[in-house]
User: Which sequence fits this backbone?
Protein backbone atom coordinates (compact mmCIF):
# COMPACT_ATOMS: atom_id res chain seq x y z
CA UNK A 1 0.00 0.00 0.00
CA UNK A 2 2.86 2.38 0.77
CA UNK A 3 4.19 1.88 -2.78
CA UNK A 4 0.74 2.70 -4.17
CA UNK A 5 0.46 5.86 -2.05
CA UNK A 6 3.85 7.04 -3.38
CA UNK A 7 2.82 6.23 -6.97
CA UNK A 8 -0.50 8.07 -6.65
CA UNK A 9 1.12 11.03 -4.88
CA UNK A 10 3.09 11.74 -8.07
CA UNK A 11 -0.15 12.95 -9.66
CA UNK A 12 -0.47 15.65 -7.01
CA UNK A 13 2.25 17.67 -8.74
CA UNK A 14 0.62 17.29 -12.16
CA UNK A 15 -1.98 19.46 -13.91
CA UNK A 16 -4.66 16.87 -13.07
CA UNK A 17 -4.05 15.54 -9.56
CA UNK A 18 -6.07 12.56 -8.32
CA UNK A 19 -6.11 10.82 -4.95
CA UNK A 20 -7.36 7.53 -6.38
CA UNK A 21 -4.78 4.91 -7.32
CA UNK A 22 -4.89 1.12 -7.69
CA UNK A 23 -2.36 -1.67 -7.81
CA UNK A 24 -2.90 -5.31 -8.79
CA UNK A 25 -0.48 -7.90 -7.44
CA UNK A 26 -0.16 -11.66 -7.57
CA UNK A 27 -1.78 -12.90 -4.35
CA UNK A 28 0.86 -15.59 -3.76
CA UNK A 29 4.09 -13.84 -4.79
CA UNK A 30 3.20 -10.19 -4.23
CA UNK A 31 4.60 -9.41 -7.68
CA UNK A 32 3.14 -6.22 -9.15
CA UNK A 33 1.12 -6.75 -12.32
CA UNK A 34 0.28 -3.07 -12.90
CA UNK A 35 -0.79 0.26 -11.41
CA UNK A 36 -3.38 2.80 -12.50
CA UNK A 37 -4.85 6.10 -11.36
CA UNK A 38 -8.25 7.68 -11.85
CA UNK A 39 -8.62 9.13 -15.35
CA UNK A 40 -12.26 10.28 -15.38
CA UNK A 41 -11.39 13.84 -16.49
CA UNK A 42 -8.59 12.88 -18.87
CA UNK A 43 -10.67 10.23 -20.64
CA UNK A 44 -14.03 12.04 -20.32
CA UNK A 45 -15.38 8.77 -18.97
CA UNK A 46 -17.18 8.57 -15.62
CA UNK A 47 -16.26 4.88 -15.35
CA UNK A 48 -12.50 5.51 -15.58
CA UNK A 49 -11.97 5.00 -11.86
CA UNK A 50 -8.53 3.70 -10.87
CA UNK A 51 -9.90 0.29 -9.88
CA UNK A 52 -11.78 -0.24 -13.15
CA UNK A 53 -8.80 0.91 -15.19
CA UNK A 54 -6.49 -1.44 -13.29
CA UNK A 55 -8.82 -4.40 -13.87
CA UNK A 56 -9.24 -3.56 -17.57
CA UNK A 57 -5.50 -3.19 -18.11
CA UNK A 58 -4.68 -6.34 -16.13
CA UNK A 59 -7.17 -8.44 -18.09
CA UNK A 60 -5.78 -7.11 -21.37
CA UNK A 61 -2.21 -7.75 -20.23
CA UNK A 62 -3.05 -11.34 -19.20
CA UNK A 63 -5.41 -11.84 -22.18
CA UNK A 64 -8.10 -13.27 -19.88
CA UNK A 65 -11.22 -12.09 -18.07
CA UNK A 66 -10.42 -13.67 -14.71
CA UNK A 67 -8.05 -12.15 -12.19
CA UNK A 68 -8.35 -15.08 -9.79
CA UNK A 69 -5.02 -15.33 -7.99
CA UNK A 70 -4.64 -11.53 -7.77
CA UNK A 71 -5.24 -8.85 -5.16
CA UNK A 72 -6.33 -5.27 -5.79
CA UNK A 73 -4.91 -2.53 -3.56
CA UNK A 74 -6.57 0.85 -3.77
CA UNK A 75 -5.98 4.17 -2.03
CA UNK A 76 -9.71 4.56 -1.38
CA UNK A 77 -12.50 2.12 -0.64
CA UNK A 78 -14.00 1.03 -3.96
CA UNK A 79 -17.36 2.52 -4.87
CA UNK A 80 -20.14 0.00 -5.65
CA UNK A 81 -19.32 0.12 -9.38
CA UNK A 82 -15.65 -0.65 -8.76
CA UNK A 83 -16.34 -3.32 -6.16
CA UNK A 84 -18.81 -5.04 -8.47
CA UNK A 85 -16.18 -5.00 -11.20
CA UNK A 86 -13.64 -6.53 -8.80
CA UNK A 87 -16.12 -9.31 -8.06
CA UNK A 88 -16.84 -9.98 -11.73
CA UNK A 89 -13.08 -10.12 -12.34
CA UNK A 90 -12.85 -12.78 -9.62
CA UNK A 91 -10.14 -10.98 -7.64
CA UNK A 92 -9.15 -12.89 -4.50
CA UNK A 93 -8.97 -9.84 -2.31
CA UNK A 94 -9.46 -6.07 -2.26
CA UNK A 95 -7.44 -3.96 0.19
CA UNK A 96 -8.30 -0.27 0.58
CA UNK A 97 -6.85 2.75 2.39
CA UNK A 98 -9.15 5.75 2.84
CA UNK A 99 -12.86 5.08 3.27
CA UNK A 100 -15.89 6.15 1.27
CA UNK A 101 -16.74 8.46 4.19
CA UNK A 102 -13.27 10.04 3.88
CA UNK A 103 -13.72 10.63 0.14
CA UNK A 104 -17.21 12.02 0.70
CA UNK A 105 -15.70 14.96 2.56
CA UNK A 106 -14.24 16.11 -0.78
CA UNK A 107 -16.26 14.65 -3.65
CA UNK A 108 -19.54 12.92 -4.41
CA UNK A 109 -19.81 9.28 -3.37
CA UNK A 110 -22.29 6.41 -3.28
CA UNK A 111 -22.55 5.39 0.37
CA UNK A 112 -22.54 1.60 0.07
CA UNK A 113 -19.47 -0.05 1.53
CA UNK A 114 -17.28 -2.40 -0.47
CA UNK A 115 -17.80 -5.05 2.21
CA UNK A 116 -21.58 -4.77 1.76
CA UNK A 117 -21.31 -5.15 -2.01
CA UNK A 118 -19.08 -8.23 -1.59
CA UNK A 119 -21.38 -9.75 1.04
CA UNK A 120 -24.40 -9.40 -1.27
CA UNK A 121 -22.60 -11.25 -4.09
CA UNK A 122 -22.35 -14.89 -5.13
CA UNK A 123 -18.66 -14.32 -5.87
CA UNK A 124 -16.17 -14.70 -3.03
CA UNK A 125 -13.75 -11.86 -2.37
CA UNK A 126 -12.02 -10.83 0.84
CA UNK A 127 -12.33 -7.08 1.51
CA UNK A 128 -9.84 -5.57 3.96
CA UNK A 129 -9.51 -2.02 5.11
CA UNK A 130 -8.86 0.60 5.98
CA UNK A 131 -5.10 -0.04 5.69
CA UNK A 132 -2.68 2.92 5.94
CA UNK A 133 -5.77 5.12 6.08
CA UNK A 134 -3.89 8.19 7.32
CA UNK A 135 -1.37 8.04 4.45
CA UNK A 136 -4.10 7.41 1.88
CA UNK A 137 -6.30 10.19 3.22
CA UNK A 138 -3.32 12.57 3.03
CA UNK A 139 -3.67 12.28 -0.78
CA UNK A 140 -7.09 13.94 -0.44
CA UNK A 141 -5.82 16.78 1.76
CA UNK A 142 -2.72 17.76 -0.23
CA UNK A 143 -3.01 21.49 -1.18
CA UNK A 144 -3.02 20.74 -4.93
CA UNK A 145 -5.77 18.18 -4.44
CA UNK A 146 -7.84 20.57 -2.32
CA UNK A 147 -7.58 23.12 -5.15
CA UNK A 148 -8.66 20.47 -7.67
CA UNK A 149 -11.64 19.49 -5.53
CA UNK A 150 -12.66 23.17 -5.43
CA UNK A 151 -12.65 23.22 -9.25
CA UNK A 152 -14.62 19.96 -9.37
CA UNK A 153 -17.26 21.33 -7.00
CA UNK A 154 -18.06 24.09 -9.52
CA UNK A 155 -19.69 21.32 -11.57
CA UNK A 156 -23.11 21.05 -9.95
CA UNK A 157 -24.66 17.57 -10.03
CA UNK A 158 -27.97 17.30 -11.90
CA UNK A 159 -31.03 17.05 -9.67
CA UNK A 160 -33.33 14.07 -9.99
CA UNK A 161 -35.58 14.52 -13.00
CA UNK A 162 -33.35 17.24 -14.51
CA UNK A 163 -30.84 15.96 -17.05
Assistant:
Amino acid sequence: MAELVAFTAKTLESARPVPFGSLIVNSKTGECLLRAVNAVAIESDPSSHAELRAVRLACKKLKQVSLAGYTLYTTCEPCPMCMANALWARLDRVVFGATIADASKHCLQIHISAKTVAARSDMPCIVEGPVLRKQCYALFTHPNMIAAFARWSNRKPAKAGHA
Summary: The first strand starts at residue 21 and ends at 26. The chain has a mean pLDDT of 94.
